[in-house]
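Let us work through a complete example step by step.
Step 1: write down the sequence.
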Amino acid sequence: MLDAGPVRITAPPPVPAPTGGERRTGRERLRVVALGGGHGLAAALTAWRRLTGELTAVVTVADDGGSSGRIRREMPVLPPGDLRMALAALAGEEPRTQEMARLLQHRFGGSGVLAGHPVGNLMLTGLTEMHGGDSVRALGALEQLLAAQGRVLPMAEVPLDLVATVESTDPDDPQDTRRIRGQVAIASTPGRVREIRVSPADPPVPVEVLRAIAAADVISLGPGSWYTSVLPHLLVPRLRQALAEATARVVVVLNLEPQPGETDGFSPEEHLGVLLAHCEGVSLHTVIADAAAVVDRRGLLSAVQGCGAELVLAPVAAPDGAPRHDPQRLAAALASVVGAR
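Step 2: predict the structure and record it as tokens.
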């Protein structure tokens, strides 16, 4: 048992998903901004939408692999993949809008030029071109088609590149480092990431993002690829300043396990330590971790105490043992945090 410090070990009850006909009252008016990208952000959005309809996703735009990489190399647009996934996670519950969400996620088969492209990537690219390069307007158009339960915004107005310093895996020269450019290359290069930055170093941020952060009651970071989906938001000066000035409660959801190629061998407290090293003035208030995934509870508690936050240990992993967050369990943990504010 842990007997000191701001920690709660909880087994919160399931939180039912709101239906389209329910009247939103009380905490469902909470203004939540969720930052991240990929499957991790989609899981967070699926959880948060059970608690509020005032939800804004701020999505990383550094993907350079697969369909998104092909599109950003050929067109002057933001990589659409993570934006598409966030839109699909917020789609309305009606059968027609759910069918539209499935269409967005559908990938073309075959071996031609369209092979591997999700339909939604092409739709978002086309709408961006129709709106003169305005990604925010293009996303708004898709939000209407999907009856989205929230809003999706890019974290920057231009595509970003990630540049990482990666530790050597050569036992004869352990102090050697390599500089790796690109999200896919970073994720697939052996060795721990020591440092990461974005290029351009100070990209423009949509004003809608800054307004959403300033008005938020809660801001959430994670889960997701730590160096390539979560940390990039803290590397953009204008975005980090907005987070530092925000009056919202900042909630961090830790990953269930290390990610190969990014955080090999990282403990939960090491994940948190890396995040803290990039915060620069951003206050953290609550850290949520899966109770079963934490081996050294005292070590994690010490790290959380060090930044003045509360630690919440709760069963948030999928009950089938898969290394993914269960949206209903995560929503229950988030609800316990919101209720405790």
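Step 3: interpret the result. Residues 1-5, 18-27 have pLDDT under 50 and may be disordered.
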